[in-house]
């Protein structure tokens, strides 16, 4: 089930509310601002507690309040304009692999980023100050700049941090221990004597709402994310995430294998994480060893010709794996032939209708995704849901 209440003796009570598709619609915090969210038929997050409209086109956020967003031909966010006359401009630059290599802020401050052969960020330079990063597989294990050296230790086979070691050499290094929430997000850092040296309150999508204690710096956020002070973004291994709007700056590198909305972080931030910026998984993220796989989804039991998942998102990811092996491209809607959705979109298919998927409900299989190619019918990917759930899901395909 979805998390509905979290009680922290230091940080107060948090209550969460969801729509029928298990998407977060409200977060009530006893010690912080209240948050309200909407979702359009394509699953795009809309911030309803802020002045001004949220306008999304082709899954790209183009306007939020006084902020206007511009994209290049590949769907990469290249410019944010805000303020009177949109005179405050932040620009983003990318290399030929769509990796962020530079940011220029309205005040003229610049940042540049470099990557290794595996696409891991190995350095950043902010106004002539360079920080170098060191990796073990897909996990960041250390960073170094002229003023500081930090090392990170994680739980086994996980992106959940255990400890931060700060300083040079065994004599001068000081250990600090992470206190995490249910998702593995750092809530506090404590010294060996129990003193709290870092503590923060978060908004639902990962932005720091208030820093209570900041005696040392802690850049780790959601699993697999590193906070960049210069931009406000979270570096998330394969992409950059903006916690202020709950979206990635660029499309998912694994295309449809990561879901039908390439900018979405997770379907629900109280129960899901995306440590690699590729494909989301339920909160506690096992299965990461060395070079992590691109998928960290729960294993699903096979039942005859059906594969069952707990959620629609998991079922869709499984279905898309099968489809991509059969040269699938989502080029036009699949129209229903029966029931309430007769004549209405219920899925997606190739332009020649030879490969595709549809979302259906029947008494035998319940809620499920049906896949096919011109050569064969695939398995049914079932998930927890009612006929009403399926009706709401298929409305996402309707043209707006």
Walk me through the topology.
Blueprint: E1 5-8, E2 12-18, E3 24-29, E4 35-39, E5 45-47, E6 54-57, E7 60-64, E8 67-71, E9 77-82, E10 88-94, E11 100-104, E12 110-115, E13 121-126, E14 129-136, E15 139-145, E16 148-154, E17 161-166, H1 169-172, E18 174-180, E19 186-190, E20 196-202, E21 208-214, E22 226-227, E23 234-235, E24 240-242, E25 247-248, E26 272-273, E27 281-282, E28 302-303, E29 306-309, H2 312-324, E30 332-335, E31 345-349, E32 356-362, E33 366-372, E34 377-383, H3 387-394
Parallel strand pairs: 29-34
Antiparallel strand pairs: 1-2, 2-3, 3-4, 4-5, 6-7, 7-8, 8-9, 9-10, 10-11, 11-12, 12-13, 13-14, 14-15, 15-16, 16-17, 17-18, 18-19, 19-20, 20-21, 22-23, 23-24, 24-25, 26-27, 28-29, 30-31, 31-32, 32-33, 33-34
What does this structure look like?
It is a single chain. The protein is mainly beta. Helices cover 6% and strands 43% of the residues. Strands 6-7-8-9-10-11-12-13-14-15-16-17-18-19-20-21 form a 16-stranded antiparallel sheet, with no helix packed on it. The radius of gyration is 22 Å and the shape is globular.
Distance between the termini: 31 Å
Low-confidence stretches: 285-304
Please count the helical segments. Answer: 3
Number of strands: 34
Q: Rg from C-alpha positions?
A: 22 Å
- Specify the helix fraction band: under 10%
Round the mean pLDDT to the nearest integer and report it. 89
Shape: globular
Number of domains: 2
**What is the topology, as strand order, of the major beta sheet?**
6-7-8-9-10-11-12-13-14-15-16-17-18-19-20-21
Major β-sheet annotation: 16 strands, antiparallel
Q: Strand portion, in percent? A: 35-45%
**Secondary structure category:** mainly beta
């Amino acid at each position: 089930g979805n998390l509905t209440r979290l009680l922290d003796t230091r940080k107060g009570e948090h209550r969460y509310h969801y729509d029928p598709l298990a998407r977060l619609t409200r977060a009530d915090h006893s010690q912080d601002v209240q948050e309200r969210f909407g979702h359009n038929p394509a699953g795009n997050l809309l911030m309803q507690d802020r002045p001004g409209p949220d306008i999304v086109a082709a899954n790209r956020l183009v306007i939020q309040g006084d902020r206007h967003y511009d994209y290049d031909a590949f769907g990469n966010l290249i410019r944010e304009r805000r303020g009177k006359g949109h005179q405050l401009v932040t620009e983003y630059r990318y290399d030929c692999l769509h990796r962020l290599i530079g940011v220029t802020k309205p005040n003229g401050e610049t940042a540049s980023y470099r990557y290794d052969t595996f696409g891991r960020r190995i350095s950043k330079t902010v106004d002539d100050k360079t920080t170098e990063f060191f990796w073990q597989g897909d996990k960041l294990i250390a960073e170094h700049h002229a003023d500081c050296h930090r090392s990170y230790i994680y739980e086994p086979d996980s992106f959940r941090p255990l400890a931060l070691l700060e300083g040079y050499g065994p004599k001068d290094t000081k250990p600090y221990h992470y206190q995490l929430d249910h998702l593995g997000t750092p809530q506090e850092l404590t010294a060996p004597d129990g003193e709290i040296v870092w503590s923060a309150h978060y908004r639902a999508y990962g932005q720091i709402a208030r820093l209570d204690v900041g005696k040392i710096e802690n850049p780790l956020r959601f699993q697999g994310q590193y906070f960049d002070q210069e931009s406000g973004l979270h570096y998330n291994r394969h992409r950059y995430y903006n916690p202020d709007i709950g979206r990635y700056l660029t499309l998912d590198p694994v295309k449809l294998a990561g879901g039908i909305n390439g900018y979405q972080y997770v379907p629900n931030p109280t129960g899901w994480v995306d440590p690699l910026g590729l494909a989301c998984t339920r909160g506690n993220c096992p299965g990461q060893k060395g070079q992590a796989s691109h998928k960290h989804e729960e294993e699903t039991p096979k039942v005859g010709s059906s594969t069952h998942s707990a959620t629609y998102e998991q079922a869709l990811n499984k279905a898309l794996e099968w489809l991509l092996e059969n040269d699938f491209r989502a080029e036009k809607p699949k129209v229903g032939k029966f029931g309430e959705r007769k004549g209405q979109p219920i899925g997606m298919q190739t332009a020649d209708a030879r490969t595709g998927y549809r979302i259906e409900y029947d008494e035998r299989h319940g809620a499920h995704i049906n896949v096919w190619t011109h050569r064969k019918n695939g398995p049914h990917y079932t998930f927890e849901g009612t006929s009403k759930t399926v009706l709401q899901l298929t409305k996402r395909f309707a043209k707006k």
